[in-house]
């Protein structure tokens, strides 16, 4: 199977462990997959496979991005799919113009390449559980603490299904004030 990639922001260890602890407190048994704290991230852009062998060119293009560091804060728990039987349960982050701007810069940097990134609207989130397992509808109150954490870099990750960590850093880019 050909490698798959995405560009994302790794959640700092302390914040990821607190999200993991909150999720464990829910005693959730409704999903088949639970994101290990070491793999918690916000996807800026899902690339998928690299049929034209352009990942190195993508890494070079991403190295040209200039963006100041910023902070994000978790806000609430939301879902994708039917709320009673959600496909994904995630920690949402408060609206952040800086995050939206970084995501747009990432998308624009890769536009000239033949990669076929996901074209869905950007919904920043930290996946906590995925793949509905069946059973009764989800009817418990899910909350996460309001956690503020710094964003100082973004990373190209290679996906290694079945491993922990599942997302392997290929290249990271420090955020710094423009010069």
TrEMBL record:
Keywords: Hydrolase. The active site is at 41 (proton donor), 125 (proton acceptor). Its EC number is 3.1.4.58. A motif (HXTX 1) lies at residues 41-44. Pfam families: 2_5_RNA_ligase2. NCBIfam families: 2_5_ligase (TIGR02258). Belongs to the 2H phosphoesterase superfamily. ThpR family. This is RNA 2',3'-cyclic phosphodiesterase. It comes from Planococcus liqunii.
